[in-house]
């Protein structure tokens, strides 16, 4: 029990220290700039970022801004608005993430079937990720509006953008993972006259798990980014992406609020990634997790 | 060990699928909203070029006051986004009407988008160039050797035209600086003159505390150059519709009704500033009250007075807009005759005149709105 608590502390402590250090760096720089009139001490010369209240609001202002109403007339606090927006964005991301994971895994299994398919598909998967998201977003919206089978909703376009970022790491790492079992394992299965499917389910998929975990975590973070960019790009209201933009427009007169939304988006990414990472404990072969660097 | 593996693998799969179903179910819960059109109304849609704000007050007023419903229309307003090009949305048939700047629409039309301008809502341009009064800049000629901010993305042409008009070379005599869509660079005095719309960024400036005085920045601390006065201003918010669909009798009649309801909405905003503020805030509670009051008031003075009637394109200002666009090669040449039409808006105004409404606003006088700290 004591050991467990200690281990927990060991895991939390470094990130806690990192956050404190980051805050200290921010406040330190800010106060130095205020004291020296935005000059480097001793050597002189302009600081790269000005330290006035608009560009770098005081840390305590950012924290207290969370608990104040977002507008004088509004009864919603910034914290509530950020949480609501994050929850909405997370649902959109989750839908996109799941679709991306399924598509990515299917592609990996497809590429496993033959070297020819792998050579045919893999380069295109890589090319797909070089297309800027901002160029893609309007196209996805237009295509979505052409879909007649389902009643296409704007949030689906954003989910699809998240899907687009999600499937890539899953497909690439999934393929590597499926190919990872040593030849003698596969040969053993062959000697049992196993079908391809049996080999896939009993040897290849369990073998792929240590490769999939980091890929899914990466995909989870990417799906949040995709959703936020997508929301801003196509103007979908309700999510934290839109909130960032709306607050950014008021940043000149209310700078801390924008930072609140940005912090919220960061926390959202962490929460979603950890939730996906939590699946790891339920997976077979999870003790190998540290063997595979992404 | 072997025995425990399989069930855990299955458990994982089951959880994964469960999570998938959960997320899918969650994502679905608002798909039904707004599908209930109600009765005999014809659903139509309007694509904005930005998010809900006072700039689009008239359309929200038209919905709220039932002006569209009175004419058998059920208007859905689609908010814009960073990458949404409203006139393209109309050309693709994904919205019936769009709000877009005059030249942007014309440029899309030149690129073969089948769209026509059906009303010129803003009679004047909202763009200004703002500098600190103590910097001594009072004319464009004073920009020589100074850092002049502009937003790019097609917003720079009025700036360039003004510089040329003053006899300066935009590439040599001034330092053109890409400016964020805010006034931070000017507040920090990193640039000497900043591009601003009178209804948004200029107001933000007046809502900001001056670090030197500790009070809100006052108008007399600033100097404003108005591109309208220089004769290089380019017309802005206009309404666009599909060229081909306008040839269909039914769509044409519907468009006249849409224009009448929209312009009645703008008349409402002109005569009821406070109600307009409430309307916008109801639709976008995230916005600041003081800032929206300023915005609607300034938008009103971009529209009113409208000597030829609200929404009617002024041929001289249109020509001026096109000339600047051609000079800077945003347009390859003069637009064709079908690019704009005023018959629809004039029929719409006849409707409104018949109802005894004042469609020119000759006696309109702008109200003095006091900037509030932070625009709240």
Could you please describe the fold and organization of this structure?
The complex is a heterodimer of chains A (294) and B (376). With 294 residues, chain A is an all-alpha fold. Chain A folds into 2 domains: 1-54; 57-291, MetI-like fold (Orthogonal Bundle). Helices cover 72% and strands 0% of the residues of chain A. Chain A contains 10 helices and no strands. Chain A has helices spanning 2-36, 59-65, 78-113, 115-128, 133-146, 154-178, 183-191, 196-234, 240-249, 255-278. In chain A, helix 6 packs antiparallel against helix 8 (196-234). Chain A starts with a helix and ends in a 16-residue tail after the last helix. With 376 residues, chain B is an alpha/beta fold. Chain B has 2 domains: 42-124 and 235-375, Periplasmic binding protein-like II (D-Maltodextrin-Binding Protein, domain 2), CATH 3.40.190.10; 127-230, Periplasmic binding protein-like II (D-Maltodextrin-Binding Protein, domain 2, 3-Layer(aba) Sandwich), CATH 3.40.190. Chain B is built from 14 helices and 10 strands. In chain B, the strands form 3 sheets. Chain B has a 5-stranded mixed β-sheet with strand order 2-1-3-10-4. A 3-stranded antiparallel β-sheet of chain B has the order 8-5-9. In chain B, helix 6 (157-165) links the parallel strand 6 and strand 7 (175-178). In chain B, helix 10 crosses helix 11 (273-283). The longest helix of chain B is centred in the first third of the chain and has 26 residues, at 2-27. Mean pLDDT of chain B is 89; it is low at 1-7 and 27-38. Chains A and B meet through helix 3, helix 5, helix 8 and helix 9 of A and helix 1 of B.
């Amino acid at each position: 029990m004591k050991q467990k608590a200690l281990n927990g502390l060991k895991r939390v402590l470094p990130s806690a220290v990192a956050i404190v250090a980051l805050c200290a760096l921010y406040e330190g720089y800010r106060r130095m700039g205020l004291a020296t009139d935005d000059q480097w001490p001793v050597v002189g010369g302009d600081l790269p970022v000005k330290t006035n209240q608009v560009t770098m609001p005081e840390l305590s202002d950012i924290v207290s801004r969370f608990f104040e109403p977002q507008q004088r007339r509004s009864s919603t606090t910034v914290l509530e608005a950020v949480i609501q927006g994050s929850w909405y964005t997370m649902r959109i991301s989750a839908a996109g993430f799941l679709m991306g994971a399924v598509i990515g895994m299917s592609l990996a299994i497809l590429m496993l079937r033959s070297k020819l398919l792998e050579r045919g598909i893999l380069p295109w998967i890589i090319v797909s990720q070089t297309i800027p998201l901002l160029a893609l977003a309007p196209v996805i919206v237009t295509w979505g509006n052409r879909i007649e089978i389902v009643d296409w909703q704007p949030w689906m376009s954003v989910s699809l953008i998240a899907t687009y970022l999600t499937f890539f790491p899953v497909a690439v790492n999934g393929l590597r993972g499926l190919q990872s079992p040593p030849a003698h394992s596969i040969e053993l299965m062959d000697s049992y006259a196993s079908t391809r499917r049996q080999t896939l389910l009993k040897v290849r998929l369990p073998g792929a798990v240590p490769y999939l975990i980091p890929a899914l975590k990466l995909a989870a973070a990417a799906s949040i980014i995709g959703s936020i960019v997508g929301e801003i790009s196509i103007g979908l209201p309700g999510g934290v992406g839109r909130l960032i933009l709306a607050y950014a427009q008021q940043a000149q007169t209310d700078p801390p609020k924008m930072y609140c939304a940005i912090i919220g988006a960061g926390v959202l990414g962490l929460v979603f990634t950890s939730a996906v990472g939590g699946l790891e404990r339920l997976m077979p072969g999870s003790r190998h997790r540290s063997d595979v660097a992404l | 060990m072997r025995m425990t593996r399989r069930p855990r693998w299955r458990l994982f799969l089951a959880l994964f699928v469960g999570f998938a179903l959960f997320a899918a179910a969650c994502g679905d819960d608002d798909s039904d909203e707004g599908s209930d059109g109600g009765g005999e109304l014809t659903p139509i849609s309007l694509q904005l070029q930005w998010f809900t704000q006072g700039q689009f007050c008239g359309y929200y007023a038209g919905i709220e006051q039932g002006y569209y419903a009175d004419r058998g229309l059920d208007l859905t307003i689609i908010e814009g986004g960073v990458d949404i090009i409203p006139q393209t949305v109309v050309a693709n048939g994904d919205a019936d009407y769009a709000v877009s700047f005059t030249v942007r629409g014309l440029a899309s039309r030149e690129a073969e988008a089948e769209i026509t301008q059906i009303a010129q809502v803003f009679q004047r341009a909202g763009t200004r160039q703002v500098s600190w009064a103590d910097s001594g800049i009072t004319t464009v000629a004073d920009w020589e050797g100074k850092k002049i901010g502009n937003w790019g993305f097609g917003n720079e042409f009025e700036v360039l035209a003004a510089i040329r008009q003053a006899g300066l070379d935009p590439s040599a005599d001034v330092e053109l600086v890409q400016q964020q869509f805010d006034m931070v660079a000017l507040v920090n005095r990193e640039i000497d003159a900043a591009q601003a719309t009178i209804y948004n960024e200029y107001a933000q400036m007046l809502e900001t505390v001056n670090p030197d005085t500790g009070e809100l920045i006052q108008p007399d601390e600033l100097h404003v150059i108005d591109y309208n006065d220089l004769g290089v201003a380019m017309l802005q918010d206009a309404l666009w519709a599909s060229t081909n669909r306008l040839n269909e009798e039914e769509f044409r009649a519907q468009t006249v009704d849409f224009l009448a309801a929209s312009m009645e909405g703008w008349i409402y905003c002109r005569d009821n500033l406070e109600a307009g503020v409430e309307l916008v805030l109801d639709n976008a509670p995230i916005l600041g009250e003081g800032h929206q009051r300023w915005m609607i008031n300034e938008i009103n003075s971009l529209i009113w007075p409208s000597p030829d009637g609200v929404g009617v394109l002024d041929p001289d200002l249109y020509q001026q807009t096109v000339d600047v666009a051609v000079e800077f090669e945003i347009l390859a040449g003069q637009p064709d005759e079908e690019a704009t039409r005023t018959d629809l808006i004039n029929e719409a105004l006849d409707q409104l005149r018949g109802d005894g409404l004042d469609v020119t606003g000759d006696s309109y006088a702008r109200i003095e709105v006091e900037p509030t700290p932070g625009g709240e």
